[in-house]
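Feature request, filed as a ticket because there's no other form

It would be nice if the structure record came with a short human-readable summary line next to the tokens. Right now we just get the raw output. Example of a typical job, pasted below so the devs can see what we mean:
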Amino acid sequence: MGSQLSVDGSVHVVIVGGGFGGIAAASQLQAWGVPFTLLDMRDAFHHNVGALRASVEKGFAKKTFISFGKTFQQNFRQDLVVGLDLENQKVLLREGEALSYSHLILATGSSGPFPGKFNQISSLQAAIEAYEGMVRQVQSSQHVVVVGGGSAGVEMAAELKTDYPEKEVTLIHSKVPLADPELLPCVRQEVKEILLQKGVELLLSERVTNLEELPLNEYRDSIHVQTDKGTQLEANLVILCNGIKINSSAYSGALGDKMASNGALLVNDHLQVQGFSNIYAIGDCADVKEPKMAYHAGLHANVVVTNIVNSIKQKPLKTYKPGALTFLLSMGRNDGVGQINGFYVGRLLVRFAKSRDLFISSSWKTMRQMAPS
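Raw output as currently delivered:
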């Protein structure tokens, strides 16, 4: 990145959210020497691309949580943002304190059911133990039902069958095509074929009707699952893999009129929140017409940090343009499918590019720490 930037005492960037976009922005600001504070309710970054494998493989979870403090030191603060004071340029924290900013990066991400997401106030050790506890639930179960056949659901079913081929795994999905609608039809078809090859039972175009009554992520001798088509199953474990929502609670009060219907923030080509030159949104909480992926959050962070630096230097701002879709699905450590720049890529390439490592080494590199073996 070259030399560090010379800034006066008025510059202080606050980043709300320490997901993929948040740590990418923080690392780049740190390299530039720009004063910043990264805020997150956890004390560790969660590499949630590996969350599903951490739910089935004993000892894997420790690779998916990386201490913020070791990397960002005094520039990191564990706290919950409850609102924004736009007039005074302050971020409002849970205990009533307010943190001033000259530039604000909102990287609040999205929330969803555990184990795909881990959105709660927690320490690194407690978070790891939550996943190790999930592994024990899986190991105790003979029949696992996965509800939801988007990306998380199909990857979850594949991880289960890869590690425990002897277990019965049923995937229930309310639609017929699996995985994300943005994917090529041939990719979605191959997802189905891989699951069938692994021995996953598919119940497609069926919806679970008694979901609210079911215990999630907990072993039981018998869990009765029923669908709208009259199918009845007896399972030992039910894992929910749908219902992802944008985390908007930090900004919905102050920026409610700048939000899309899904809770994401309306942004211009520079990823500035509409009407604000010093507030940016990146990752899942930015209303950009592309799938919500870690890869895109990192691209957003690059543009936003460049724009903050350029605004300080009084240089032109950089624009962000979504490209052709790159989307890789890990179907267990030994298989995968996907597309790069809108073109289908073979299973062997995805296996080596993503499935074996799940990009975990990349996050440890970003955080400049050594991954545990």
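Something like this underneath would help us a lot:
The first helix runs from residue 20 to 32.
The chain has nine helices and 21 strands.
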